[in-house]
Amino acid sequence: MRVLGLTGGIGSGKSTVAAMLRALGAAVIDADALAREVVAPGSGGLREVAEAFGPGVVDAEGALDRKKLAAVVFADAAARRRLEAITHPRIAAAARQRAAEAEAAGHRVAFYEAALLVENGTYRGLDGLVVVVAPEAEQVRRVMARDGCTEAEARARLAAQLPAAEKVKVATHVIDNSGGEAATRAQVQALWDALQRAGE
């Protein structure tokens, strides 16, 4: 089975593209979902995060307070690296397990959806890379609407990631999500058809 990376800057629409791929029958491994799993209440990951960042990042119900943690790590590159050192190895192990399950279920292609595949070099170990792009102003607007944050906060999150142009340089496929949903869907369908032909 081939595993392709699926990435794009925050607010670019990679989750929308992932949903379209799922609708076509693709196996999509969602790194964000795995990231939540590895710091679930009672997990070793959550315990290590609390030790690194203080008990204030855990709420009264024993769950990770993502907003408090985000406020710390998006403002401090060293803190972000510390968090990634705790979570990334756990996420990678969970992703390998999901890929094995997808292959056992008969999938010939799977997508690993993650924000930082280029930044952390993970894309090099994959069989290809799909990069979703959108204009920066549109990314900012989407992040503000989705996360209820200010424009400055949205731009700080964008700045914490590599510019889209750098990701496109290492992409094997690019999905331009600057048009309407129909235009994006047509590109996703064309990509899926090409991958199916390549796997025959």
Structure, described:
By secondary structure, the protein is α/β, with parallel strands linked by helices. 54% of the residues lie in helices and 12% in strands. The chain contains nine helices and five strands, in the order βαβααααββαααβα. It has helices at residues 14-23, 31-37, 44-53, 66-73, 77-104, 136-147, 151-159, 164-169, 181-198, and strands at 2-8, 27-30, 109-113, 129-133, 173-176. A five-stranded parallel beta sheet has the order 2-3-1-4-5, sandwiched between helices. Helix 2 (31-37) crosses helix 5 (77-104). The radius of gyration is 17 Å and the shape is globular. The chain starts with a strand and ends with a helix. The relative contact order is 0.22.
